[in-house]
Batch of 3 targets.
Target 1
Amino acid sequence: MKVYIPFPCVDGGNGDENIPVMQSACLATSDVNDFVYQSPTQDDFVLSSTSNTHDPSVFGLIESKPFPTATTCNVQLLGAREGYSGLSRNKNVYLSVTGGATTVPPTTGDLQILGLALSPTRILFKPNLQKVRLT
């Protein structure tokens, strides 16, 4: 099931953009802003990324959870997102070796571009589903 929620424009526009979000099952330990990939063994179930060496590719990030320990999450598929740190503006954002966001390309694991850093704390999430194996 796809849900569309309003989200402010990145460029300070009138805020009438829609960001695609889908609802999915997830682990109770998954957190908001975690990057997620589809479970290889369960349908409609996402797993939080803890490294840059899993298959399949990251395709979304957790936008919200109804309750902190809930096993249902809303997964943002594209668009701007606040809540990260240490990023270099106007640089590609990569999946780090620990499963987080970084603007420093990893030298081991898989190289996957997740989007563009708009500021040290905000990304434009537009994941490339193709990745390069570095190890």
Target 2
Amino acid sequence: MSASASPTPAIPVGVANQFTFHDSEHATQITYYPFGFGPIVQGQGPGPKLDYKGQEGGFSFSGTQIQVTSSPLGNLITVDLRPHIAGDELLVTLVLPDVTMTQPKENFKTIIVKTAFHRLVVAPGADRTYSVLHMNGVAATVGLPQ
């Protein structure tokens, strides 16, 4: 190793630090890093990062743009695909179960829920609609870029 190269940080054994997801047609793809992705902010660890590609386009989210909520279903990872369009919000929530790592990669299945809010039209009925996509997931323990 040269003097300018830095060693890869240690990865906790049995803990996935990268999750990749795709639907059966590969039309929707998500990559999620729950921790360990720079930059490091003083007083905090490095924050999460999520990349989304789907029919709505490609998006990258990090830090406080990603809402993580613990639930009986697992962690709910939520991002807003339309944060600047008043009244026409589109949230994507990934259900991330606990994954026990016995090898460098573990396959599992989960879902994402797309929640579309319809606040601009006042009409009888619900103010949002839901669609559910079944996703194939891979949990992995990988070295992360600095």
Target 3
Amino acid sequence: MTRPLPVPDPRTAPYWEAARNDRLLLPRCTACGHYQFYPRPICSQCQSRDFAWTQCSGKGTVYSFTVVHRAPSPAFAESVPYVVANIRLAEGAHLMSNIINCAPQDVTIGMPVTVKFLHVDDAALPIFEPDL
């Protein structure tokens, strides 16, 4: 069984296209500078409708996490245990991802991480590893 992959829509296509090129882009409000993720039509800070897709540093910290010991489907059976984490990017936005290249028991809240990209078929998924 293959891993489920994203299905870009017009609002998320720039994010997924950038990921395929190993770049992390997020929508940034041109009125107040707020980065937000997930992409939505109105800034959650100032209610502006003007955004620009902006390159992010890819640096962040683990805000919270859980260790998955039971695969949610056969597609993930070979991956358990794995870490699902809420990453607070240096730019302020949060996104959910996995932590790789680190034993699950070594992940901590506040741990610095940096983005990497997992290429699967025609998609790329932003994942994070410890930034030591």
